[in-house]
Amino acid sequence: MGIEVPQMNILQIIATIFFGGSSILTIVTQGLYIIGLWKIFEKSDIKGWWALLPWFREYQLGKCAGKEPEGRAIGITAFLVCVTEIAGSFIKNEYVILFVAVFEIMAGIINIVYSIQVYTGLIEVYNVRKRWLWLWILAEPIPALIWGFSDKYKPSWKAGEFRDNAVTHVKGGDVADMGEGLTVNLDKREVADGLFQKKTLLKDIHMNIKPGRLVMLLGGSGAGKTTYVNAINGYEKADAKVMLNGRNVYKEYAKMQYECGFVPQSDLMRGKDTVLHTLNDYAQMRLPSNFTSKDRKDRVEEALTIFGLGPVRNSMVSQLSGGQRKRLSIAMEFLSNPSLLILDEPDSGVDGVMAKELFKQMRKVADTGRIVIAITHTPDRVIDMFDDVIILAKDSDRTGRLAFYGTVDECRKFFGKERMEDIVKCINRPEEGGDGHADEFIIKYAQEVQHV
Amino acid sequence: MSEAVMTQTRQRKLHYRGRGSQVLIYLGKLLRGFVYQNDWKVMPMAALIAGLVSMVVRRDFFLTMEGTIKGAFALTCVAIWNGCFNSIQVVCRERDIIKREHRSGLHISAYIFAHMIYQAGLCLLQTIITLYVCKMTGMQFPDGKALFTPWLIVDIGITVFLITYSSDMLSLWVSCITRSTTTAMTVMPFILIFQLVFSGGIFTLPQWAVKVSAVSISNYGLKCITSQADYNSLPLVTGWDSIMKVEKQELSTTITLGEVMDFLQREDLPPVHDFRAREYQIPTMEKVFAAFNIDPNSNIGGTSFTFNELLALADASQAAAAEDPKAGTEIAPADEQPATFKIGQVIDTLANITEEQGLRDESYNFSTNVGQLLDLIGREKAETYVKTMTADANRKAFYAHTRDNVLTYWMPMCLFIAAFAILSVIFLEFVDKDKR
With a threshold of 0.90, does the pTM exceed it? Predict the structure, then answer.
């Protein structure tokens, strides 16, 4: 017995697209839901007419709930459900109908799951009782209308916030390449944000770091620290010009990647390999091929000695302590003798004594003429060993900006605070537990740089 | 010392390790991983799986069509299982490490090629173990059926290796796409189900699914092993087994005499033909009397004649007829009578009599059981007939025992290996795009 699905007419197709179905009941309930959404969007500073656009309204609702990816997933799955439903009515082959039906069921299930996540997010944003979730699941037009029209329900956070503050237009100035050291002229670093938008992660960062400097990179979470280090070593290219010892990092990336060492935050090494094998393999990868076997061995021995890994050379990496693993991770990058060594939170998961020991070694590495940049979240215990500080802050457009670059003493003077942690607190946003003075210092620093 | 070398090196044009050297570095890592990272555990697992499967399928493999198709399917599943589990986690479990190494100069193609070499070795060992265990558990690989080497087990070994290796590469690709072992293991059952359903051997596929099966490894693997096992020359036993299961089944029907006669005259049906060709010796009357427990001196029902008197009369009549050929019935002299008769002759005579006397439409209730019918025809011949007929109907060109056929199945598997390796490289090149 064949499966037959009645073919839709044009009105039914339009109704299915805009309301998710063509029955009178569906059109009425969805119409009410759209009206409610219009008001909810306006409360979140999003244009209300988005509620009229099928699939995009789900995405915007996700934004209102602070669940943008989930909202996007709902929009996509709602689109797929709609397409399969319409296509299903035109297909005659029963196998294809079955396939489409299975696909539609899958998309429907995903849609429901993500919808629950978005409703939960909305409940948190509107700070109401969790029992509202049931109403959202079972009869979404009702809560949409109540929350949309009642002044009692207000979002604690607005998705569509857009500011055009003074900080948006503040710009530092390009710095000239000194021929040695690291010169960064980063205009912006953008990533795709949804289908039609771009999000600026970093903007307007210009600096010149001389060889032999040990630099601390500070900033609150989301300020763009990792984005910045990835941009300066060419791993994630930005709209920027980065020169290392007179060579363009972006243009000569294939060669320059050996000049830039990056030690990731987590210890990314194979646990079931010995320390010596790990270093040997890395040395073969990182050192030029005209290195003889003896030179390579010497280099590995040197790294083992400098980082105190000699006694555990034949141990499995998985058997090392946290500190030893961290040192091995740094030693791996040290092997190629890079001009620029970047460390992403090398002291995470390491006690104070070990952290100091680690940075002492970094100090020694910097003293050999290399630039060492380290990100850390516990700056005050090791700040004495550093030469310079870079402070990145999230401005009110939520873009990472340069709030300060200079020596440690200049930094203290600039912010009027002794402790680095206080400086970070001062620039962090209020919802992150900070004082929210980022814009102020970004403008101040930009003006100072321009003045200079 | 090395500082000086570094400086000198920097002044010259720098060259770093190319793909070839990196393949060797990673091959070394993988071989160490085989020992230290417990990758060797796939070997005893392969033996265990092969043992379990072989216990079930060994008896009829290479002996009957059903046994062969089931055996080929089981062997294909074992190979796919081994291949998939070899590599489903290998890349995704160290994705972050690869990401770090990639930014430090690792060539993804070198990494994947190292895996290809290593996994080829692993698959080869698993194939050897699997077939060895099958052989040990009593699976018989018949002599004289090999197409490429002198031994069928080696021919089948090549196929099993190709199935294992192509599945391995498929999983490697999946491992390159997925970002965590959890996701990879979630995807895994779907791959196995797809291979199982679209193998095309066990399940009858609708037309659209036949096209889909063109991209399933199991489809080629199963067909290849089945061809190598010379499926088309084997008997199909399911039909005969089914008949034997209903041996005691009572059959009751109404049939006309004409229908019976028509059936018994059908020379085109081999069992009927054989039945009709059966020869019997004409018994002496003494044997006939003895067989029916008749006293030759007793009267013939209600008459004053005894059987012996009747026989004497018949003899006299026969003698008279011999003297005067025109007189009496045309009965051959006693010494010229044929010593044997065929059932077919009797049937034809009876059919003539039935027709002449207008008895064809006479209907009879016919009651018997399947076993008795088979006895009537002759069990052995019926069995041979049923098996041959059903086997004829099940012979397929794509199971033909030819070198061309086998090569036709090996080729797509080789292409799968290459395609999945290339896809692995392409997808893993995007490792840097992973969200932090």
Answer: no
**Are A268 and B6 an interchain contact pair (Cβ–Cβ within 8 Å)?**
no
Residues of A with CB under 8 A from a CB of B: 93, 95-96, 226, 235-236, 255, 257-258, 262, 264, 266, 268-270, 272-273, 277, 281-282, 284-291, 295, 298-299, 302, 316, 333, 337
**Same domain flag for B184 and B256:** no
pLDDT in tens, B176-216: 999 899 999 999 999 999 998 888 877 788 887 888 888 99
Q: How far is CA A276 from CA A286, A292, A300, in A?
A: 15, 17, 8
Same domain for B276 and B130: no
Task: Looking at the structure, tell me whether residues B75 and B137 fall in a common domain.
Answer: yes
Beta strands in B316-420, from DSSP E residues, in sequence order: 340-342, 363-369
Residues B371, B387 within the same domain: yes
Mutate to test the interface with A, among B7, B91, B104, B193 (most CBs of A within 10 A): B104
Residue A301 pLDDT level (bands cut at 50, 70, 90): very high
Of residues B12, B96, B208, nearest to A95 (C-beta): B208
Comparison of pLDDT for A92 and B219, the residue scoring more: B219
Give the closest residue to B257 by CA, choosing from B365, B367, B376, B361.
B361
Do residues B378 and B271 lie in contact, with contact meaning Cβ atoms separated by under 8 Å?
A: yes
Q: What is the DSSP string of B108-149?
A: HHHHHHHHHHHHHHHHHHHHHHHHHHHHHTT----TT--SSS
Which of A249, A290, A332 would you mutate first to test chain B, the one with the most B CBs within 10 A?
A290
* CATH 3.20.20.300 given to domain A166-259+338-451: no
Q: Do A316 and B5 touch (CB under 8 A)?
A: no
- Nearest-Cα distance to chain B for A254, in Å, is 8
- In chain A, where are the structural domains located? 10-149, 166-259+338-451
Residue B325 shares a structural domain with residue B245: no
Model confidence at A68: pLDDT above 90 = no
Is the domain of B320 the same as that of B426?
no
B332 pLDDT band (50/70/90 cuts)? very low
Q: Which of A240-244, B192-196, B335-339, B432-436 has the lowest mean pLDDT?
A: B335-339
Give tens-digit pLDDT for A171-211: 667 777 777 889 999 988 888 776 667 788 898 899 989 99
Q: Does B433 touch chain A (CB under 8 A)?
A: no
Mutate to test the interface with A, among B21, B99, B100, B211 (most CBs of A within 10 A): B100
Which of B289, B19, B353 shows the shortest CA–CA distance to A285? B19
Asked whether the beta carbons of B376 and B251 are under 8 A apart, the reply is no
* Residue range A291-317: mean pLDDT, rounded: 89
| Residue B346 token pair | 């009797």
- Domain total in chain B: 3
Residues B355, B264, single domain; the answer is yes
Domain that holds residue B309: 285-337
DSSP A192: E
CB atoms B94 and A95 under 8 Å: no
Nearest to B5 among A236, A258, A295 (CB): A295
Token code pair at residue A359: 């940075």
Quote the ipTM score. 0.72
> Do residue B211 and residue B294 come from a single domain?
no
